[in-house]
Specification:
Strand order of the largest sheet: 1-3-2
Structural class: mainly alpha
Number of strands: 3
Strand content: 5-15%
CATH topology of one domain: Arc Repressor Mutant, subunit A
Amino acid sequence: MDPLELLAHPVRLRVVHALRGGRTLTTAQLCERLPDVSKATVYRHIDLLCDGGVLEVADERRVRGAVERHYRLRPDRAVIDAGSLESLTLDDYRRSFGVAMAALLAEFDAYLGRDHADPVADLVGYRQHALWLSPDELLELIGELRRAILPRLANTPAPGRSQYLLSPIHFPIDEPFQAAG
């Protein structure tokens, strides 16, 4: 299964999010992170991600006669390369965006379902801005965002750190402006 097909499912995408930043989690811990998903479904999607090489077993321990596996993400396999993006159809983009939004909605709902959820204290934000940008200005903005985000992708779990889901989305909502002439 190619990476796009593997990642184009909301549950699998949420598992990938949970394991970012060098985390290792058991299936039970992943089930806790996805309380709205049945355990059988989480197990099935973990198996698919392992079979596809996106996840690997980081450690195995015997616990009460069963083998408990800790999984880790293979970040090099959890990406969609430029060549794959160029071959996507408009319907592929539509489906992929729907998956991303479904995962985002499910993650937000799971956050709000926690006993200690506090959107104000947790600095929850979801703003949208409509910007007029030339192609060069858009590339500059994307570069600035990458320079701000990339160093933080290497952060690992540590005391006082919470994992945040950051979802920059950009697409044109209008045709290029044409001055009346």
